[in-house]
Amino acid sequence: xxxxxxxDEKLLADSLKVLLESKGFEVEAVYDGETGADYAExxxxxxxxxxxxxPGMDGLAVAKRVRSLRxxxxxxxxxxxxxxxxxxxxxxxxxxxxxxxxxxxxxxLACVGALLRRQGGQTDAMRFGxxxxxxxxxxxxxxxxxxxxxxxxxxxxxxxxxxxxxNLSKEAILARVWGYDSNAVENHVEVYVxxxxxxxxxxGSNVRxxxxxRLGYHLEEDKGC
Length: 225
Prior knowledge:
The chain is built from eight helices and eleven strands. By secondary structure, the chain is of the alpha/beta class.
């Protein structure tokens, strides 16, 4: 499960990241609203943990922007404000739950678990067309046929399954799979997409990875198959 923390208090953000990673979650942390909104719009996260009071774009604005794009990712909103009116504002902006600072880590973990269960987040497979991506074994399956993916192929395929019909740019794939500090270039994405296309074809999948110039890649289902 992939969680994004958007919190301008770096110490708190990094502490939450360590806590959640110790529970088996894959976690990224960013420290301002603009960057957080850009990350959230990728649609690859299972949960957003969002601070309200941030300079520039605050948490309410981030939540509204995310929801305006019809992104249904659960949002756990953190704030130092405990007034009823503040909680109502957060919920109206699109938050699913409102946690007041300071909070007990047990309550935070309980909220995370509840929101992921509500989202149907506890899953071990993703499906598109006639094809399944098994998250536990790292294999693509179509009927009785299956093929194992390398770690990098799996990461790229999972992103594409998560975004499905929406375009995912090469830059976004590079950032999510190789990391912002990597020396990888766009050609690396093209190479791995080529590998995945061959593996999809090898198992008789009706799923295609389509490229759109300047916009990136998305999955399509061949209805004729």
